[in-house]
Specification:
Order of helices and strands: EEEEHHHHHHHHHHHHHH
Number of strands: 4
Number of helices: 14
Distance between the termini: 43 Å
Strand order of the largest sheet: 1-2-3-4
Shape: globular
Helix content: over 70%
Structural class: mainly alpha
Oligomer: single chain
Length: 354
């Protein structure tokens, strides 16, 4: 149905509406992504608030709000501001970072199975972190710092080995799977030669957890998200064009190789900093973008909705894990494994996995 007024002209085109303001901007109004985004924002806010209120030390909502402004009893301020707020922020930021990273990888590779978990970025971080815990490698660097270096090194290796007059998504996935297998083997070897105490520390880190996170974990992750997330959203238009093929993207004026390289390293950076702060929380980067694209009915994962979905998965997973004293990675691993099997079965039916 078209609406024509002296100032505004709208026309319904399928599931969205094209609007044009006289002597002003024009664009496409899509109500479904806006509705989904609003609902997810409310759910994320509720999960974030629950992280501050629920726990062994009872805190009311009013006390939690007051503690955020250093108002109230000192014990309440210590619990909320010193313990629960860093945990909630790491969960929020890491979930969003993992999800946007996975959305970029899956869109560039045009494959639902492409994510930092699958193509070796997270495995590289794991190998470097476990090497530090078991061998004492990287003296002077924290486990988070080593994980960051490991993720960056594996990403550079994947991109360099996949380069052949450019780096296609298909080659990146194949090389990434090989790098992932190599790093996983190194991690298994290091765990085998570790003593019991070292192995326990390594296994806890490898599971992925936001428990006992401090402001030192929040600061680098927040800075990385503040820098890299806008880059991802600004290049979102190029990301959509790259899904049409390199020749079509060039025809639309997109610098293909430069855009792909910037997007890849943006995705790697988000996954690396999230892993360094929270550990490799399993399957968030794989499942969140796929859930987001189905919620909004789009052919490719939308970055904003993916970020909200990833944050909700981590925060809700942590709340579900708390009564059992489990790390959040156990919950996301159980849910993500079922999701991965469903994606593999669906890819097999449609021939996408061939």
């Amino acid at each position: 149905m078209a609406i024509r007024t002296p100032l505004l002209h709208t026309e319904r085109l399928g599931a969205h509406t094209h609007y044009r303001v006289r002597r002003g901007p024009s664009g496409v109004w899509r109500p479904r992504p806006l509705l989904v985004g609003t609902v997810l924002t409310v759910l994320v806010a509720a999960a974030f608030a629950a992280e501050l209120v629920i726990g062994r030390f009872p805190v009311s909502a009013a006390e939690a709000i007051g503690a955020l402004f250093w108002y109230g009893e000192q014990s309440t301020v210590d619990v909320v501001y010193g313990l629960r707020l860093p945990r909630a922020l790491v969960g929020l930021l890491a979930g969003a970072a993992f999800a946007v990273s996975g959305a970029i990888f899956q869109t560039l590779a045009r494959n639902a199975l492409a994510s930092p978990d699958v193509i070796g970025v997270t495995a590289g971080a794991n190998a470097a972190a476990v090497a530090g815990l078991v061998l004492g490698a990287g003296a002077g660097l924290s486990t988070a710092g080593l994980a960051l270096l490991g993720a960056a090194a594996s990403a550079v290796a994947i991109y360099a080995l996949a380069w052949k007059n450019g780096a296609s998504g298909y080659r990146i996935i194949l090389i990434g799977i090989g790098i992932s297998a190599l790093c996983t083997s190194i991690t298994a070897y290091l765990l085998q030669r570790a003593d019991l105490f070292q192995a326990q520390r390594a296994v806890v880190w490898l599971t992925g957890s936001i428990n006992m996170r401090e402001w030192t974990h929040v600061a680098p992750l927040a800075a990385a998200v503040a820098v890299l997330m806008p880059v991802a959203f600004v290049l979102g238009r190029h990301l959509a064009a790259l899904t049409l093929g390199d020749d079509t993207a060039r025809g639309l004026g997109v610098p293909v190789q430069r855009s792909r390289a910037v997007l890849l390293f943006t995705a790697v950076g988000l996954a690396a900093f999230a892993t360094a702060s929270a550990g490799p929380i399993a399957f968030v980067a794989l499942i969140a973008p796929q859930a987001a694209l189905r919620l909004v009915g789009r052919p490719t994962p939308p970055l904003g909705v993916s970020a909200l979905t990833g944050a909700l998965i981590v925060l809700a997973g942590d709340m579900a894990a708390r009564p059992f004293d489990l790390p959040v990675g156990v919950v996301t691993g159980l849910v993500g494994a079922a999701g991965l099997m469903w994606l593999l079965a669906r890819a097999n039916r449609t021939g996408q996995g061939a």
